[in-house]
Amino acid sequence: MAAPKKSRGAAGGQGRPGRSLALILIAMVALTGGMFLADQPTPRLGIDLAGGTSITLEAKSEPGQESAINKTNMDTAVQIMERRVNGLGVSEAEVQTQGDRNIIVNIPKGTDSAQAREQVGTTAKLYFRPVLTVAQGTASPTPSAPPSGKPSPSASASADGKAAATPNATATTQGRAVTDGLKADATPTPGASEGSTAPSAPAEDAAAAKLQKDFAALDCSSNASRSKAAQGAKPADSVVACSSEGDAKYILGPAEVSGTEVDSAKAGFDQQRGMWIVQMEFTKQGSKQFQTITKKLSAQPSPQNQFAIALDGEVVSAPQVNSTLSGSAEISGSFTQQSAEDLANVLSYGALPLSFKEQSATTVTAALGGEQLRAGLIAGAIGLALVVIYLVVYYRGLAFIALLSLLVSGVLSYTIMALLGPAIGFALNLPAVCGAIVAIGITADSFIVYFERIRDEIREGRTLRPAVERAWPRARRTILVSDFVSFLAAAVLFVVTVGKVQGFAFTLGLTTLLDVVVVFLFTKPLMTLLARTKFFASGHPWSGLDPKRLGAKPPLRRSRRATVRTDHPKEA
What value does the mean pLDDT of the chain take? Predict the structure, then answer.
């Protein structure tokens, strides 16, 4: 019975190893070309290597809310700050707690630190409140009525239910007109326009009087006064507030829609009006609240048909409502692209559960990190040199294959890490460098596993070409299992850790995956090609595959023939 023919492509692609080598060569050229086309010839560096800014923020407790500073709220604040900074496109920013009340934010060099400081420190508590009284932003001995003859911005419903506001230079913030919804069923305070409802109890009279007194004394031209105007106020309280520009002051009713009801926000450019706007989508509940309050406000006289969007106690805008609005809203006015994107970023990622005060902001130099990097690179070079010496002494000619494979792995790792900088914000820090150095041993171990399997086959009496192919399935299983364990460890480490340790885990996982690619597409095909050369096939003493040095048995065929003759002796 004829034996089945062996497929030409079997045994790990013995017949066409050139295809795999060509594929990995093309990949290397493409990655290198992409690196230079992206103008990113080197990987981005983290703050410990490139320097940057370190910001320390201290949590502040509001009166009567001292217990709010707890681990849960601090962890939530860290997560929100991370999302905000990442929303700016910052790479390798670190946000972590320090003690019970402090949060440390490290921002690498090359980032607009002033913009990032504003983003991480802004509490972004957003409320939509009805306007009860509005006046000029300076202090006055008696409550002021709305300036006559000076129109407020108006809000109108568009076809898709969006609100659109027209900015006003007097009673609202200059260049930030906003539309949103607020309830109009709040009890107006004395001194507002006609139609106000008088307090029904002495306690309410006292509260209203205090509110009017605070309103009269409020001077919005001072930054300190603006920041303290609504400090400690609860959403259910009526408050006094300044515009963010300080040109107007308000008495605002209780919050009727919270910023938590904003489902998403994005900045965009309105081609028709030629201005930057921030578009907001409400949650289902927020949309209902928005519709209810705009319906009530549209029936009120001025200024009680206005609603204010108060961000961290300051009125961003206070447009009028002329009709019932629902669905979504937009913030429009004299935004720049940057200011519109900043506001959308803050609204998208939510409000911080606590207020924070900036304790310090220091510039971090890369001198210490540079020294550590040099020490690490020296250690890596020494380790690589020892690996090379071991390979040359023990494996001789096979060391050539191992060194070429290490070179290919290094090129792939370097180009991919350089491209991941602009792609996903990856930045190389000291732990990541350590991960790359550890990967040298992992990659070298894969070559050694394969070489030892080939030597085992030669010891069994096989010639080199069959030994290369028979050794591959056994080595392949061992390599895959080993790399899977390494990758699993890196993945777990990446998930359960934070900060710089994630850089170590990410680099270790990346290089482990590249080890599989290099062994399958480069090391094995190259070994197949070199097995056809006379130097390796003849078992040259410097090839590392000399049968005599390996203690090879006699050829397997001769052994089988001798066994057959022994089992079937001739009859006498």
Answer: 75
Residues 343-355: b if buried by 16+ CB within 10 A, e if exposed: bbbbbbbbbbbbb
Quick one: pLDDT at residue 454?
92
What number of other Cβ atoms are within 10 A of residue 448's Cβ? 17
Q: What pLDDT is stored for residue 515 in this prediction? A: 93
Among left, alpha and beta (phi > 0; psi -120 to 50; other), residue 3 is: beta
Q: What is the pLDDT of residue 383?
A: 82
Q: Average pLDDT in the 314-330 region?
A: 76
What is d(CA 390, CA 441) in angstroms, rounded to the nearest whole number? 12
What is the C-alpha separation between 464 and 555, in angstroms, rounded? 12
**Interstrand relation of 163-165 and 52-60 (parallel, antiparallel or unpaired):** unpaired
β partners of residue 329: 280
Per-residue burial over 2-11, b if 16 or more Cβ lie within 10 Å, else e, is: eeeeeeeeeb
CA distance 413 to 467: 31
3-state secondary structure of 189: coil
Quote the CA–CA distance of 95 and 55 in Å, as a whole number.
Answer: 9
Alpha-carbon distance 437 to 49, whole Å? Answer: 17
Q: Is 6 left (phi over 0), alpha (psi -120 to 50) or beta?
A: beta
Quote the pLDDT of residue 145. 42
Q: Are 364 and 47 spatial neighbours (Cβ–Cβ below 8 Å)?
A: yes
Distance CA 475, CA 467 (A): 12
Where is average pLDDT lowest: 388-397, 480-489, 542-551?
A: 542-551
What amino acid is encoded at 3 in this protein?
A
- Pairing type for strands 154-157 and 307-311 reads unpaired
Distance, in Å, from the CA atom of 92 to the CA atom of 501, rounded to the nearest integer, reads 12
Per-residue pLDDT, 163: 39
Q: If phi over 0 gives left and psi between -120 and 50 gives alpha, with beta otherwise, what is residue 470?
A: alpha
